Amino acid sequence: MSASPPAAAAKSGDALARRLAKLDIHRQQDLLLHLPLRYEDETRISAIREAREGEPVQVEGEVESCEVVARGRRQLVARVRDDSGVLVARWLNFYPSQQRQMAPGRRVRLFGELRHGFFGAEMVHPRVRNVDAGEPLPEALTPVYPTTAGLAQSALRKLVGRALDAHVEDELLPPQVLHDLRLPTFSAALDALHRPGPQVSVAALEAHEHPAWRRIHFEELLVQQISLRRAYNARRAKRAPALKPRDQLTRKLVDALPFALTGAQRRAVAEIARDLAVPHPMQRLLQGDVGSGKTVVAALAMLQALENGFQAALMAPTEILAEQHWLKLDAWLTPLGLRVEWLAGSRARKEREAAQARLAAGESLLAVGTHALIEDAVTLPRLGLAVVDEQHRFGVRQRLALREKAVGGLNPHMLMMSATPIPRTLAMTHYADLDVSVLDELPPGRTPVATRLVSDARRDEVVARVAAACAEGRQAYWVCPLIEESEALQLKTAEETFERLASELPDLRVGLVHGRLKSAEKSATMAAFAAGEVDLLVATTVIEVGVDVPNASLMVIEHAERFGLAQLHQLRGRVGRGTAESTCVLLFAADQPLSDTARARLKVIYEHTDGFEIAREDLRIRGPGEFVGARQSGVPMLRHADLERDADLVEPARALAERLLADSPQAAERLLQRWLGGREGLLRA
After folding, report:
1. pLDDT tens across 175-234, in order?
2. Which residues form a coiled coil (predicted)?
3. Using CA atoms, how far apart are residues 488 and 86, in angstroms rounded to an integer?
């Protein structure tokens, strides 16, 4: 039974709404901000004889002939003539309606890329429009929008056109800002982007260099800043325990350390101590390069919580990293009479339950662990400080779950740590709701690591280099290739590499560590390597972070072209931790060409040792969303702005966001509605 007309219309409307929703279009306003990817110039007609090959052009003429021919496969071939010559139009896939459209004698406009074929000038799959002689040309360039299956460009253009016609000027930026930054009004920018006149440079539009794009980029950055500053202000309105510096346990630890804190560490400790003393939840990012000494800064912050009778917990993404933190903290804090509880899925159930009971009763004030810390069975009734290491590896929900372990209405302070340095513009946008402390100097005694790029055709030389280093009493790592398609394949490769190296180097004690090993086996192998009882450690990327063996002076990374820049930098940071000269060998495949991205990454890691410089290059290669894991971070993603290209707009956007929130909260709210429509996402966790 056929649907009645109203029902059919409703059904059709629902289907359209579903397709628009796939493009994140839910309101008229969203159509205005659904901006073109590129443009086609249908404002002029080119004579067939003068049309340039390889460029999109529009021609107009009369159809001389149209027939279906079989040249290997059925195709529709038409000849179109204007006053200057003849063009062949060809369709390899076609419908009967297209054949009718190209009936001889009909006048058509064809738009497409011209090329010279066997029968002269031709277009393959041109866009066709039947016209009358003298029919006026469009007055604006034709926009081409991002779309989805079942939603034609023509339909999308009509919807956007209606939204533009209904739009009333809604200028929300102060006139002085428009003047200072030389920005057009919002309406003028929309008109210029959706309906650019024929005199506008298509190249400037498509390269986002037109002033209209600059306005859109600035406003998008501004909205992101407003959203993040609101999250920051909302957090400042919450209550947290005021953990005053008492300098009892913290002073004891500093005096007992076998090294002096660097200037950067002392500065970060002071910034964190100041935040902890305030009755609002701290949310601070501690970022520093590999080996810059973040753990001791975190330890001093945790002791400040303990000095005030509160608990502290440190959560890390992998068991190896969490265990490294536990071993370090245990060695530093046990002499101070403190017990550090170790919570991980691999611990015996009885031991884990005993540790949970001590934490629940408040007998133990310190906990270190993996995701096991946020399981329901774990309670931390006096949690005053939560520390999250490699915070970008956790989702928003996981970070919130740790915070929610506290009871009694007080919010714990949060310290997030990252060994992936964040470029300044990225910190100002994606981390605008955090306070940031930077460890920008390495502890004395760290030796620079020499980096070598070596084709895997010279693998035998690298194996000999490993043998020589270990013969001198040093240790080495051999990291197996990253195989994204299959963890099982990666495991097989690791085991094969281990067996091969063990047979090639019979005089060396070779160990193997990978993610599928039982935790006890993993810990035993790592402990043996740290104690010097293993000469060569074959590993997957489980050793990427947190492993600290000063005697290891050689790192070999096989198929280095498969790794990301941050991973390569982290892995390289496992050596150079002692006084010996250290080397990182990047083995790349000789039998297959490197992709442009892989080549760019290897060039950067070879030329730079500074984590911040590497991070800037990584941002350029990957883009901001991938760099910070923004898809799981709750940060409004940037659709149009680009942090490298628009770096000069970030600071003015940040300043204006603060000004609007203080002086014109209604304008700030309307800007948020315009861009996000209430979909502000999770506040930063």
Report:
1. 999 999 999 999 999 999 999 988 888 889 999 999 999 999 999 999 989 988 888 888
2. none
3. 60
Burial 109-144 (b: 16+ CB within 10 A, else e): bbbbebeeeeeebbbeebbbeeeeeeeeeeebbbbe
Domains of the chain with bracketed CATH = 5-38+146-207 (no CATH), 44-137 (2.40.50.140), 208-446+644-685 (3.40.50.300), 449-608 (3.40.50.300)
What does the chain come to in residues?
Answer: 685
Query: How far apart are the C-alpha atoms of 412 and 315, rounded to whole Å?
Result: 14
With left for phi above 0 and alpha for psi between -120 and 50, is residue 121 left, alpha or beta? beta
E strands present in 480-557 = 510-513, 536-539, 552-557
> Structure tokens of 67?
């027939």
User: pLDDT for 586-635, tens place per residue?
Assistant: 999 887 788 888 888 999 999 988 877 887 787 777 665 554 444 444 44
Other beta carbons within 10 angstroms of residue 650's beta carbon come to 23
What DSSP assignment string belongs to 595-646?
Answer: PHHHHHHHHHHHH---HHHHHHHHHHHH-HHHHHTGGGTTPPPPSS--TTTT
Q: Position of tokens 């993404």?
A: 317
Rounded to the nearest 10°, the torsion over CA 622, 628, 629, 632 is -150
The residues, ordered by sequence, that sit 6+ positions from 302 with a Cβ below 8 Å of its Cβ are: 312, 314, 329, 366, 385, 387
| Angle, CA 573 vertex, CA 568 and CA 575 arms, to 5° | 120
Compute φ and ψ for 125, nearest 5 degrees: 50, 50
Give the chain's residues under pLDDT 70.
Answer: 1-12, 391-400, 407-409, 421, 423-433, 445, 482-491, 544-547, 622-637, 678-685
Tokens standing for 144? 């081409």
Predicted pLDDT at 428:
66
| SS3 assignment, position 331 | helix
CB atoms within 10 A of CB 427: 18
AA identity, residue 15: A
pLDDT tens-digit series, residues 298-317:
999 999 999 999 999 999 88
Half-sphere exposure in the Cβ direction for 287 (13 Å, CA): 19
- Compute CA distances 291 → 9, 343, 443, 548, whole Å: 64, 24, 8, 9
Closest CA to 578 of 552, 541, 604: 552
Alpha-carbon distance 461 to 629, whole Å? 38
